[in-house]
Amino acid sequence: MALPPITDLSLTSLRQVVTELGHPEYRGDQIAAWVYRSQIGAFDEMSNLPKSLRQALADRFRFGALALEAEFVSSDGETRKAALRLPDGDLIESVLMRYPTRDDGTGAERSTVCVSTQVGCPVKCAFCATGLMGFTRNLGTGEIMDQALHFLRWSRAVPPTVRNVVFMGMGEPLINYDATMGAVALLVDAVGLGVHRLTVSTAGWLPGMSRLIEDKYAVRLAVSLHSPDDALRTTLVPLNKRFPLATLLEACWEYQARTGRRVTFEYTLLDGVNDTPALARDLVALVRRHDVHINLIPMNPVAYLPFGASRPEAVEEFHRIIRESGVICTVRREMGRDIRAACGQLRTELQGREPVRATTVPA
Predict the structure, then answer these.
(1) Contacts of 234 (CB under 8 A, 6+ apart)
(2) Which of 125, 252, 329, 343 is catalytic?
């Protein structure tokens, strides 16, 4: 049986381990500095630790829960997607997105890592490649952290360094709450990222949202909305049948009231499905009294799915209606289409599996 990754441990647990091994508690902080700040790759590199402690750690833990299976870089060099193999042989995906300065020269270059929290996904959104593969298991904290560390190490050598981490890869983060927030705690307390630089996405898993409202780590919240109409959203996001829009939005406003954070609503535009002017106006009516950001996402086409990307003129009109209402609205830049950057596409191809075909298109 494989040893657990050192990144599974919280800082408190790491300090406890070293004291149980007969060493002072501060050694735990030194280990954390090596793992998360220096981002080294072996216990032998921890030069300020006694050799006996380094050996004891190596006997109980390992570096790296993940092995790089394949990596693809987009033609513009701004997106890098990694397929990472887990100890049990399954694959997950992580993505590094690099944003240059704006055309007018403003804004700093920055990098964002998108991490997965589950192998597959139980939510099964109708337009998502990950949903086609079903659900296998939750990832551990170390398996989530090691995705971020993979690209943190890479970006140290090839700036800009990673400034943001988004939990928007394969899986529903709030179903895997403890491991997700364990990774959040390490990113803040050990890596040193500000909590405002971490975004957790959810399709509307209310039990997890209720816990998040009470959590001390006030991350940015992104909600996969995709429709302001309950019937259509239930077709696109089956979880809506259990937690309909009114209940979901109530939790969003409660989170906003507790944390002071603006809530982001993700809205994937599907040609002829959810991209009409009428739905844009309904969306405005749903959120306009609150401090929100609507992020419109042109769909990355996925084989085996009966959805297409909205026409540019439909995207422009949808965007115009929302923007002119006074609601903050942006259209996400299309990144990584040529390297199958939609969640789950790369894994499905590398696993050599044919996903279950969708048979209906929502009217």
Answers:
(1) 240, 241, 244
(2) 343
Which domain covers residue 154, as residue numbers? 67-349
pLDDT of the residue at 357: 34
Mean pLDDT of 207-215: 98
Q: Are residues 134 and 41 part of one domain?
A: no
Residues paired with residue 270 on neighbouring β-strands, in sequence order: 309
- Judge contact between 170 and 120, C-beta under 8 A: yes
60, 76, 106 — which closes off a domain? Answer: 60
Identify whether 93 is a catalytic site residue.
yes
Alpha-carbon distance 160 to 296, whole Å? 26
Model's pTM, two decimal places?
0.91
Q: Assess contact for 203 and 239: CB atoms under 8 A.
A: yes
> For residue 36, what pLDDT band results from cuts at 50, 70 and 90?
very high
Residue with tokens 């992580």: 94
Amino acid at 299: M
Q: Are residues 150 and 29 in the same domain?
A: no
Both tokens assigned to 359? 């048979």
Q: What is the pLDDT of residues 111-139, one digit of tens each?
A: 999 999 999 999 999 999 888 889 999 99
**Whole-number pLDDT of residue 356:** 38
Do residues 223 and 265 touch, judged by C-beta distance below 8 A? yes
Q: Catalytic residue at 343?
A: yes
Q: Which of 93, 143, 172, 266 is catalytic?
A: 93
* Band of residue 65 on the pLDDT scale cut at 50, 70, 90: confident
- H/E run at residue 201: strand 198-202
What's the rounded Cα separation, in Å, for the pair 318 and 296? Answer: 9
